[in-house]
Known about the structure:
It is built from ten helices and seven strands. The chain is of the alpha/beta class.
Amino acid sequence: MSQPIPVDPAMSPAGLLATLPVAGRAEIAPAESPYPLPNIPEEDDRLSLQHFILRAFLRGNSLVPSLHSSAASGTRASTGTWTNHILDKTIAQATAMPVTSPRRILDVGCGNGRWCVEVARRFPQAVVTGVDVVAPAKHYADAQPMPPNYVFVQGNILRGLSFADGTFDYVHMRFVHLGIPSGQWQPVINELGRLIAPGGWLECVEGLLPVETGPAFARYNGLFGAILAARQIDLAQPRKLDSYVRQSPYRFHQIQSRMVELPIGAHGGFIGLSMAWNMVLGIQNMRAFCLQAGLIAVEEWEPLLRAIDEEFGSMAYQAVMPLHIVVAQRQG
């Protein structure tokens, strides 16, 4: 077990939340990368579960036309006809991608590389590059050999990436909203646009804090929200994804923007219950940080976690995570 990171007891609560290093990320100053979740094997396992949930909910690994495939998920989201209608409309309204066999694919904030591995296996002719600010504590691995066309590169999107202009014909960014300060969203989207070749595609899927939760999870939301606020992260920013893409100096068209609600809990069936477990795992992985930051007393932690788990199992609450999705093609 890792030792607690020494902190200055005279530091203000907000200052502590802003500067306290995260497990597995201690070599990266929070000012350089404010992402608060730890880089530990347990978190990499949770990221794999999260990937499987999103793949099932979105019915594939990509919403880009002609890359999207319902068969890739192995299941169909069963969370309501309205969500399915919106996703179907998003896919149907976009223009077919001219590059049906992508050669250069980039995943920004790749985590343990699970998305990259699957996409690399589907497109063996492509080089799939995953970028993250730190190498994962545990790279994704399964019974199959690691695809030779997947490459991990350490890099920080907040500081710009070292690739040349127009290197990629498909750039994917998903669930990086916890690591982008509110004032840096437009520069990040601009950098993604710089990296995309004319005619190539951008896909972003980002979330907000869950809503319609029970009181126990609402309390944790408050704790987590305090961490994010101290690190200048505003989870209202993903609502503006569409406008950031439209304001990029690297002009986009065929812009499709949608908001869908990812269920959390028993009301959402299999996907909802899976997402509830994913959230509980994420909260467990934040335990050390929350306790060291003094956000909650140690004797309160386990009762809070049990109460959250009970809420997710109850039909009395209809918790959802709003997801904002933008798919756009860079003009030629």
